[in-house]
Amino acid sequence: MNFEDIKIYLPKFLSSESEKELFQSLRDFPENIDTRLYTEFLNDERILFQGDGIKDELLVVNLPNRDIRPAPSMILSNTCDIDISNERNFPSRIVYAPIFNLGKYEQMLLEKSKKTKQQIGDHIDSVRKQEVTQMFYLPKYSERLDESIVFLDRVNNYPTDLVNRAHLQENRIFTLSDFGAYLFVLKLSIHFTRIQDNVERKSLTS
């Protein structure tokens, strides 16, 4: 699919300046996976955005281990779905996944994996290029975040109203830019919704 085809699926609400920046970022992908994934434009907002990184406030469990602990996490839920101003007939919950340090992940592979050092290096390079479908790569962001990864299959959930919006400015590690948010949604779509299992699923007939 060429870039003109991709443009059909891009957001229509952006200003001409933001649209131009997004288009250029997508043309430069994957050589531009750096701090352009983040924005400081929304720092003061008391809204929890899809793709936000949050400090050790959300609780994480890694079954079958039953230990529950707070961990830095990335929000997977759609922004509107977790907006506390949206009244619902049922309580809403935030879906998120923990953030892991990429350097520690690489060191763990070097110590425990049966792969060669070259194979592990190639894998880490693929992670940085967003080529691994179940991972989202997060580049270093000043002093807020070291190079990190999010496993999209390590999902947890938490009541929306228990996240303190008044302290979001202090607790938010990062917010994704237009480019970062589009890339994140694309990775979520590829991981959760692609139909490539080659299974024929016939409907029930009466």
The total tally of domains equals: 1
Q: What is the mean pLDDT?
A: 81
The largest sheet is: 8 strands, antiparallel
* Helical segment count: 6
How many E strands? 10
Kindly report how far apart the N and C termini lie: 40 Å
Tell me the series of helices and strands, N- to C-terminal: HHEEEEEEHHEEEHEH
Report on the architecture of this protein.
The chain has helices at 3-6, 16-28, 102-112, 117-128, 168-171, 178-193; strands spanning 38-39, 53-54, 59-61, 68-70, 73-75, 93-101, 135-138, 148-151, 156-159, 172-176. By secondary structure, it is of the alpha+beta class. The strands form 2 sheets. Strands 1, 2, 5, 6, 7, 8, 9 and 10 form an 8-stranded antiparallel beta sheet that branches. The chain has a two-stranded antiparallel sheet with strand order 3-4. It is globular and about 50 Å long. The mean pLDDT is 81.
